């Protein structure tokens, strides 16, 4: 009779020294998930329910919102938490299903690179967004820009 190993049996025994990164990753997923629920539902409530609702969402609305430091930090917190949360989830999937050590390493590096690049670009967009660029034609500027 052939014996089949129990699911999720580690290929090698777990380390007993140092920081348990899997435990902290697990805790991060739970904490960031709860914080993300608050951030996302707050974002949706302000964008869809407050004021004129969905009819009010246009370039001027987004430009006005991103010119406020409170909403900049709100959106950056949502971006960072969501990308790190998703990257950690993808890392867990790679650990569960990628069998070869090399392919697992390549996939984890690709996930890290994607998350890092998206965090950098998203943060730059939020903090450098200018709804009233200098030299733009007046008919293309939002109504709250000083050129109008």
TrEMBL record:
Top-level taxon of the source organism: Bacteria
Transmembrane segments: 25-50, 70-88, 109-129
UniProt keyword annotations, A-Z: Heme, Iron, Membrane, Metal-binding, Transmembrane, Transmembrane helix
Name of the protein described by the UniProt record: Succinate dehydrogenase / fumarate reductase membrane anchor subunit
Subcellular compartments: Membrane
The keyword Electron transport appears for this protein: no
InterPro entries in alphabetical order: SQR/QFR_C/D (IPR034804), SuccDH_FuR_B_TM-su (IPR000701)
Alphabetical list of CDD domains matching this protein: SQR_TypeA_SdhD_like
Leader sequence segment: none
Organism: Plantibacter cousiniae
Keyword Heme belongs to the record: yes
């Amino acid at each position: 009779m052939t014996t089949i190993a129990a699911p999720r049996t580690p290929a090698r025994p777990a380390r007993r020294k140092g920081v348990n990164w899997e435990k902290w990753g697990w805790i991060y997923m739970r904490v960031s998930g709860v914080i993300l629920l608050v951030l996302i539902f707050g974002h949706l409530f302000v964008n869809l329910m407050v004021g004129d609702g969905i009819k009010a969402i246009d370039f001027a609305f987004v430009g006005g919102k991103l010119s406020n430091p409170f909403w900049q930090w709100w959106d950056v917190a949502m971006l960072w938490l969501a990308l790190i949360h998703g990257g950690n989830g993808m890392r867990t999937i790679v650990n569960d299903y990628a069998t070869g050590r090399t392919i697992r390493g390549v996939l984890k590096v690709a996930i890290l690179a994607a998350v890092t690049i998206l965090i950098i670009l998203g943060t730059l967009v939020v903090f450098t967004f200018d709804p009233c660029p200098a030299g733009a034609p007046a008919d293309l500027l939002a109504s709250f820009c000083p050129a109008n």
